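User: Predict the full complex structure for these chains.
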Amino acid sequence: MNPVYISAAAALSPQYTFEAEGLLQDVRSSDNGKLFVTDADYSKFINPVAIRRMSRLLKMGISTGMKCMQLAGIRSPDGIITGTGRGSMRDMEIFLGDMIRLKEETLNPTYFIQSTYNSVNGWLAMQTKCNGYNQTYVHRGHSLEMALLDAQMLLNETNERKTYLVGAFDEMTDEYFLVKSKKAYWKKPVPNSLDLFKHSDTKGSIGGEGAAFFTVTNDKENTICGIEDIRMLQDPDENEINRTIENVLQRHHLNIKNIDLVLCGMNGDSRFQPLYANILTGFTARTSITAFKHLTGEYDTSTSFALWLATELFKRQEIPEIITLKKGIHSDIKNVLIVNHYILNSASILLLKGN
Amino acid sequence: MAEKIVVTSIGILSAIGRGTVETLHSLKEMKSGLHYPVHLQTVHANDFLLGEVNKSNDELATLLALPVGENGYTRTTLLALVAMQELMQGIDKALLQEEGFAFINANTVGGMCSVENMYEDFLSEDYIGDKVQYIDTLDCAESTLNVARYFGLKPFTATISTACSSSANSIILGARLIKHGIVKRAICGGCDALSRFTLNGFNSLKNVDKEACRPFDKNRFGLNLGEGAGYVLLETETAAKERGAEILAVLSGYGNTNDAYHPTAPSPNGDGAYNTMKLALDSANLAPANINYINAHGTATLSNDAAEAKAIERVFGEQVPLFSSTKPYTGHTLAAAGSIEAIFSIMALQQQFALPNLNYQTPMEDVNVQPNTTLTNASITHVLSNSFGFGGNNVSLIFSKA
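Assistant: Here is the predicted structure of the two-chain assembly.
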């Protein structure tokens, strides 16, 4: 398949990523194990009547999608494809809680409707009057990756210039945090989020959330970067990750020295740290190694933040101190690898090429 | 479409039976699977007829040689596994271990059927008992990954959730993955178990009928919920012929569009359904007159059936083919509906019949189309299967005679 290209990107995250001029200059952190997004003025992106009943996740997802469309200068995409691990968690929790408390009587349908995983897609289609292809993947740590692969397939199924709106969204809630703590998702005791990687010798991570959208097209002109390869691994060990990276490089006629930057999804959890061992040591001095989950926390679709971050790095050609684990001696940022692992044993590897 | 994508094995489980033989028997006998629930523990058990699968979780586990009791599997996964068991019996498992193979699954609420009964314990600060093993089962992907693990497979996997069109979308995705050469074969479908969450959700929308649902009837009131699972094995015609497999049907076309009209209601003149059916016909290179039977979405809600009937009238004009909704047999099985009804469509091709729309009596007022009400023997070459969902997610599939 031919590569596809990102022409615009928008991200809502715990950091100032939605509107800020600079990239990760002022940094937000937390001491309670949870990183929540920095809210934006959602009323700029959503119908004022509709927004009143909308839950936070819907506002996050719809606004980020609309912002991305604005940046791309497009009114209506050819289709909308998203990935989410959790959908509107809070709507689900409220409807479920009410159902238990009220013994299945007099329930408010709004929470039920908004809890369906495809509700953000439905709203985005309405707001952009997009009757085209519409799809929602709910596949844990591969949700965004599937959405990107689907877009790549669609763009390879046509000879016309087309642009799809592709994105991901996931929210953290207090209930989610409590429930998942029983499955050892989080660090105890809780470090400050910025110190996450200093505690990579203990189990657990910190909880996070975010939304990011991309306009993805088959016409390279005026785009930021190309998505050259998308690989998804289930239950991988370190060897499989390393083999896959080698395989990706080989397929695209690249040497390890050609990789200027690696965005690493390490989440401070000692159980998964070995998966990144070779990445941290195996690249040459040319390659910059970076990490981001101390800024976002862990969530199913965190690859979407990494992908957004990559588009910013391509544009700015400068790597903020706060994400740098090792500074490489490459001249510009051209070939980028994203290597991400999610807590429920899935990993993904993306190869990007700046234009 | 360049290379033909064909169906070579199926697996089905719903309120009207386990496996193809039982299912066909119920369809032919016009025997509905709707009844008051026995296994779903709800205060509404005596209020609503449901398409509940006639087996307890322990009975399902036993069929799968799994331990009974709290074994870590949700009913969603158990339904999926039992349907998959039939599909797997129809093929040599080695086929799926050697070469590129995808398992594309779909559901709407993951393991909510288990989680809703444990949630209070999950929220209790100091609870650390056995139920903790069910915490991650809320994810839609849980059943997908569990099916792969149960059968000892390591496929390419994906899980789709687009409400009531979910598993019709998995069939499209599987076909496209094969066409792109990403995999050689794909098992596609969906599963959903009845849950109080979903029953109360639809009930809060006031569109659940207490009686058996009456699709396309003027006096229809709403839907009956159901549960089940359905899976189809897709491969190219060449791959099927290479191994001498029996071809059950050809997936000759599909369409996916969005209504972009309202979060839960279709556009009243059926624009969304119209566009989707048209797209499927175009992709199959067929004219409306080529379709011999439509397995309609036909949920029996006021808005769906009005919009869908109008759209059928607009697409097919004077030559409306035999059409029916099979929801009165199975209830609305949500994410499983697309693949279960895809299998009914394949049965229509194989048996050369159009299925009846049970419980139909009075024609709707502002459309001229009327569903087929008996098991009708007919020459069936092409079948259109509709699946329309919340969020405006519409899908049509076309299956053709091998």
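The longest helix of chain B spans residues 75-89.
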